[in-house]
């Protein structure tokens, strides 16, 4: 008999659900990386551990974004900056903003001006930036340098989480365009990291603020916040709304917090770096004015690197103090620098920068359409907001009624917000939903030529906005080409950017993003041109702006609506069940916001909604075709014709030739070359780390060996020959280390350590034996004394009053006697031997004897505690039938007296106690005794008459 289909469906559904749960149980931790121009912060979320910042090797919560190469070694963070002070061209810094830039970009020109000691050359294939290392002539692209930092970030995260991590959410500046975002994803691919999402840094900070304040949001009126983020390189300001919105779940809708970015403003070159550079140049000019040396300090790269580092320290100190001395020893020509700088001098030096502080905030307000009065609070983020003058200008120029918000962690807000998003996107965690909608900073449009009807007239170019300024994303859009029936092409690029400065537009690089050629349009139309009941809806190109802010062309298709006779057969039960199951397991991408069409209509016409447009077209089409059917057959009623017709949508996929016009990162062989380069560098680092570990182990062993041999306990455990041999080996290895050892590989160092270990190990073992033996013998003696006490009590008690057999008692007595004899003999022999000879009485043999007596006692005590004494029954006296009543009473009295006497005698019997014996039972059993096992000892279970204890035995 076959299994019913509904049972198969139920079993399949349960299997899928259980599979999902299994994946969740075994999923890994995830991380977020907030990689900025100057600092990198890493946060992790692991099972059972809330969001936390991953510490680096120095146990610090942030790491400088710096990579240095020196003498074939690669260093990161603080170590790299240390190299950069002495060898500036060997330490690469502030390279994040060079992602996706061609060599002629204004940002690259500014970078060369700020850091003239770097050798920057063009990539021969892509005309992008390459750093040429002065020592090795190796070349590194910004993507490769970012990949190295991401790889180091994963190392910090894995050390903190204690498990492998391969998924991450990475924060990027909001002004990153398509080229920069694509380059960041490629850098993560080179590092072998799966990017769950790129998130704008201000959105991550706003999310971190919102997840702890959901109770202050409501359903009726949104709460508006401004986040002012001044970092090392740039300043970004965002206007964000928080509101509770009902979920679209039809079964159990619930209120979910919703974050929407309404407006964004930024200044690319307003940040701590510009202040630091001005301080550097100011200190250089002051030092030159002192005329301590004829050489110009600005012409010396090493001196300028020292001044740059001191300017960064001075900037931080002056944020909390009104004046401070800048000091550098041996700045140039062995001349020291000591210059007093006041906060007023710094503010005057950066006056034009402080005048720009309010500009990005004003741009954000303008983009959002709000006024400062509607903003709940201006929340500060980024280390640059610690500068007092920045805060003063914000209060003065913004004229907000509320004080500046300082409750957000300026350094870690973006990293923690991105970590929450990583946990939300990961399959291993379930977090409370917090919907985020970001905004399009640079509008995107589609440009195409109208189909040429008259070849003598030039084609008219048409532009259609695909994603407007501040349009929310993720979102899908559809553009429809109604009149093109031949193969054609169109371009996708940035739209009008009048809200940006001219120089900022140049920084974006290529304004054209993609060139798209459609092939097979004519063939697709020709398939249906001779068929009846056909209505073409045009060529539809489906675009999407995903969560990472990347524009994606999903597909292009010809949409045909075909009128056919309706099939009156009801949908089968099998089909219904199959559709129900498929709807149950829809992915999150299937419930994205409905596609919005962008039709080939005049620009001033409004963009219709997708749902309304579809329904109107269908209704009109049905009506037209039903009228045509009436003309052919007048005998059919209108209602009957409508019932027998239905519209079927047919989609013909159009072949797309997609060419990217912006700067693309390395592809194919070049990408694989970058991956191999990073892997080789990692192998070198691992070999270096292993070598350092082996070297430290060997050096430590030599020092500890010499120190221990000077101690009496260790010296007495070695013979004169052994001592001299060990010291000679230590001297031999030390001399070898000074000559060749520091350049040796880890395997050679390990072999030297093994040679030394073979000599010292016997001495160390003897020392251990002599130190541990007294305590172990004392414990064995205590166990023997307790066992003897227990044995004596059993011997003073009749066997009928105990659960033990004579064999068990004899076995215990024999074992005690044997161990006692063995101990006395072994101790006597050991005392005759010098400490420099291997002992005959070892800790291990003592432990074995101790274990055997403990096991025997544990067995006996377990049997005793589970034993229930038998209750003695009084003998029954049968009264003669001829006795009188007085004689019966006398017999009863005699019986009572006998019972009392028997009970008194039982009270006088001495019972063995368990206090002393149980105190000797320990858990350090190292071997099993061959004398007794639990299987050989029968367990006596009480009978029904024994279940009730006599009162005289209650103490047992």
TrEMBL record:
Major place of residence: endoplasmic reticulum
Subcellular location: Endoplasmic reticulum lumen
InterPro entries: ATPase_NBD, HSP70_C_sf, HSP70_peptide-bd_sf, Hsp_70_fam
CDD domains, alphabetized: ASKHA_NBD_HSP70_HYOU1
Domain of life of the source: Eukaryota
Signal peptide (residue range): 1-27
Keywords noted in UniProt: ATP-binding, Chaperone, Endoplasmic reticulum, Nucleotide-binding, Signal
SUPFAM superfamilies assigned to the protein according to its UniProt record, in alphabetical order: Actin-like ATPase domain, Heat shock protein 70kD (HSP70), C-terminal subdomain
Composition bias, Basic and acidic residues: 943-956
A GO CC term attached to the entry: endoplasmic reticulum lumen
Pfam families: HSP70
Biased composition regions of type Low complexity, renumbered to the chain: 611-627
One Gene Ontology term of the molecular function aspect: ATP binding
GO BP field: endoplasmic reticulum unfolded protein response
Region (Disordered): 594-628, 869-956
Family of this protein: Belongs to the heat shock protein 70 family.
Name of this protein: Hypoxia up-regulated protein 1
Organism from which the protein derives: Aphis gossypii (Cotton aphid)
Taxonomic classification: Eukaryota, Metazoa, Ecdysozoa, Arthropoda, Hexapoda
